[in-house]
């Protein structure tokens, strides 16, 4: 590349340092929708196998949607809150160390870059320039691989998780309630299999893994869950 030429842009490589974080949120959203599809579908199919009355199916389905969304959101909030507290504690510790022992921290930063393959002279120069620019950011990135501005937000995580569950739960609710009673279970099975195939493909695409294997896993698992709950509902409905 000669002087004046622009550096080549690799369109297939995510150079934005926050791309990984966005991909994680997208993957979590797909998985949340997948949970909404399977858990709600399994419950309403089990109830539909026991009774053809729309009332119990609707009550069970709505209860499942509400409980599942709250559970997903609360679980994500607790998990991400713990991660956020840990990140804040690490940032506070690093800030104190920089104020109390700046020379030791400079030497530590230079050592990190030497360990990555830089010569001692280059590592020292890089460490000093980064420290002069933003010492805290340099140490957080090199030592902890976090950024102060990108500390996770538990409310965002909880909202995204609950919303994705609700989006996934809409399909089985419509599939079980809209068709005539004799078509409810078959329609729900078909709709769920198609939806799971889509979420499995998306999850594999986001993670860069083989699509076919991921689709097969999620479809077989979801179909098995529906078959088991249908059998339980059928047995209990016949017994009572």
Automatic annotation (TrEMBL):
InterPro entries: Ccc1_fam. Its main location: membrane. It is a multi-pass membrane protein. The keyword DNA-binding does not apply. It is found in: Endomembrane system. The keyword Transferase does not apply. CDD domains: Nodulin-21_like_1. Keywords: Membrane, Transmembrane, Transmembrane helix. The chain crosses the membrane at residues 28-51, 57-78, 155-177, 183-202, 214-236. It holds the Pfam family VIT1. PANTHER family: FE(2+)/MN(2+) TRANSPORTER PCL1 (PTHR31851). This is VIT family protein. The lineage of its organism: Bacteria, Bacillati, Actinomycetota, Actinomycetes, Micrococcales.
């Amino acid at each position: 590349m000669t002087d004046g030429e622009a550096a080549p842009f690799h369109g297939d490589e995510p150079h934005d340092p926050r791309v990984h974080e966005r991909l994680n949120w997208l993957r979590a959203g797909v998985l949340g929708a997948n949970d909404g599809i399977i858990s709600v579908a399994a419950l309403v199919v089990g109830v539909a196998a026991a009774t053809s009355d729309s009332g119990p199916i609707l009550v069970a389905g709505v209860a499942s949607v509400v409980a599942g969304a709250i559970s997903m959101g609360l679980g994500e909030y607790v998990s991400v809150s713990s991660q956020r507290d840990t990140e804040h504690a690490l940032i506070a510790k690093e800030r104190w160390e920089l104020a109390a022992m700046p020379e030791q921290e400079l030497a530590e930063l230079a050592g990190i870059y030497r360990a990555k393959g830089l010569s001692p002279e280059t590592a020292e120069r890089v460490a000093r320039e980064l420290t002069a620019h933003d010492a805290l950011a340099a140490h957080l990135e090199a030592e902890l691989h976090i950024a102060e501005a990108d500390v996770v937000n538990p409310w965002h995580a909880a909202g995204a998780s609950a919303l994705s569950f609700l989006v996934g739960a809409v399909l089985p609710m419509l599939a079980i309630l809209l068709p005539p009673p004799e078509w409810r279970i078959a329609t729900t099975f078909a709709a769920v299999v198609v939806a799971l195939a889509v979420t499995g493909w998306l999850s594999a695409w986001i993670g860069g893994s083989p699509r076919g294997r991921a689709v097969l896993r999620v479809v077989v698992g979801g179909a098995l869950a529906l078959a088991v709950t249908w059998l339980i509902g059928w047995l209990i409905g016949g017994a009572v």
